[in-house]
């Protein structure tokens, strides 16, 4: 009888132990060192140099404010290949043709997520502040104009740090003071022209920026706002249809660090980039901030790996790139709150600075006045 009573108790305790929630660290995927990645060849990516601010390395030089302060020289890409994109003829009209629904996501073959950590760290440390691959940007922009994309429209794609009202929106209102970052760059006439140029959509948010999103979420129709999006339409497809943007500024990492393996992160970013390219939208991808102190298991290593993937994809696809990881590391606590996910005001302001420098460069070098009939429905979404 005693054995009969003890046995159920033992089974109950084992069941409780099996159902115990895993800690955050236990739930993280184990990173496995794989064979060294085949180098990307002798590719020398185009580097955009930007105006110096006091805390940046002395190798960047300041140029007069009334002249273009960034330059880019196109370099042929030797290894990257892109699937041919269908061309489209745009007929001026006040009514936009809805963007086709998002195709089913596919697991694109991976080749970056198995990069050894030492290689990822060296690659990221050597990455420039910005890339502007001239030839491909012109090609994407031309395709977008055929499809009727609106040059003055830009969308934010990402998680909490892209949904935040502190991203881009404060720059459209002179009454809002910037804090925690040098703001002399705002005195540049070209920057002020670009703020006015993109102001309508900078001050708004669509559904492709959401606090809970990972890079996978934005391409999944399940996460779209059913009151704003069409049936079967992903958040990214929804915003492209509604805002008709020429540019998408993309940054993921805060949530991806917790739930995605590096291979999943790579696959999701590839889907986002390829969909934007097919829609004639210039994808500007950005690294994310991460504070390695205090040490959190393998999280600092994972942040390096994911950010190295971002840079590698920018080189492979020859698309614009912003290295926010680089300059955020100069801020206290890397510009992040104690949760190591949400940016503080200084972090947002530094990201705003880099985003505006990129948008200003695109406007000056590629964008023409909007074609007759091209519109954005930003205020009606």
Description of the molecule:
By secondary structure, the chain is an alpha/beta fold. The chain has a single domain (40-380), classed as SGNH hydrolase (Rossmann fold, 3-Layer(aba) Sandwich), CATH 3.40.50. The protein has twelve helices and five strands. The chain has helices spanning 2-19, 24-27, 117-126, 134-146, 160-163, 189-202, 235-243, 256-259, 262-278, 299-317, 324-328, 345-365, and strands at 130-131, 150-158, 245-251, 282-286, 321-322. Strands 1-5-4-3-2 form a five-stranded mixed β-sheet, sandwiched between helices. Residues 1-109 and 377-381 have low confidence and may be disordered.
Topology:
Elements: H1 2-19, H2 24-27, H3 117-126, E1 130-131, H4 134-146, E2 150-158, H5 160-163, H6 189-202, H7 235-243, E3 245-251, H8 256-259, H9 262-278, E4 282-286, H10 299-317, E5 321-322, H11 324-328, H12 345-365
Parallel strand pairs: 2-3, 3-4, 4-5
Antiparallel strand pairs: 1-5
Helix pairs in contact: 3-10, 6-12, 9-10
């Amino acid at each position: 009888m005693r054995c009969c009573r003890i046995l159920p108790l033992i089974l109950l305790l084992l069941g409780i132990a099996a159902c115990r929630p895993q800690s955050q660290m236990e739930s993280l995927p184990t990173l496995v060192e794989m064979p060294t990645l085949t180098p990307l060849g002798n590719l020398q990516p185009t580097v955009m140099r930007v105006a110096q601010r006091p805390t940046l390395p002395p190798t960047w030089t300041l140029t007069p404010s009334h002249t273009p302060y960034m330059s880019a020289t196109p370099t042929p890409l030797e290894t990257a290949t892109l699937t041919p994109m269908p061309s489209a003829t745009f007929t001026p009209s006040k009514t936009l043709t809805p963007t086709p629904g998002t195709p089913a996501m596919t697991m694109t073959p991976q080749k970056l997520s198995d990069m050894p950590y030492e290689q990822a760290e060296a690659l990221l440390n050597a990455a420039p502040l910005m890339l502007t691959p001239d030839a491909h940007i012109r090609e994407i922009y031309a395709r977008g104009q055929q499809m009727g994309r609106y040059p003055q429209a830009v969308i934010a794609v990402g998680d909490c740090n892209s949904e935040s009202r502190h991203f881009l929106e404060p720059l459209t209102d002179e009454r809002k003071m910037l804090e925690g970052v040098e703001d002399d760059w705002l005195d540049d006439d070209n920057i002020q022209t670009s703020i006015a140029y993109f102001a309508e959509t900078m001050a708004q948010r669509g559904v492709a920026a959401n606090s809970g999103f990972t890079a996978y979420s934005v391409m999944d129709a399940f996460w779209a706002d059913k009151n704003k999006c069409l049936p079967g339409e992903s958040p990214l497809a929804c915003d492209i249809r509604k805002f008709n943007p020429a540019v998408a500024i993309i940054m993921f990492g805060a949530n991806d660090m917790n739930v995605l393996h590096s291979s999943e992160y790579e696959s999701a970013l590839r889907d986002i980039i390829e969909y934007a390219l097919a829609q004639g939208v210039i994808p500007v991808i950005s690294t994310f901030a991460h504070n390695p102190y205090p040490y959190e298991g393998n999280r600092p290593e994972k942040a390096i790996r994911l950010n190295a993937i971002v840079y590698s994809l920018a080189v492979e696809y020859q698309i614009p790139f912003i290295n926010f990881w680089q300059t955020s590391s100069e801020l206290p606590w890397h510009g992040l709150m104690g949760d190591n996910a949400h940016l503080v005001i200084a972090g947002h302001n530094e990201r705003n600075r880099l985003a505006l420098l990129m948008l200003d460069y695109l406007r000056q070098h590629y964008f023409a006045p909007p074609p007759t009939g091209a519109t954005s429905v930003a205020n009606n979404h």
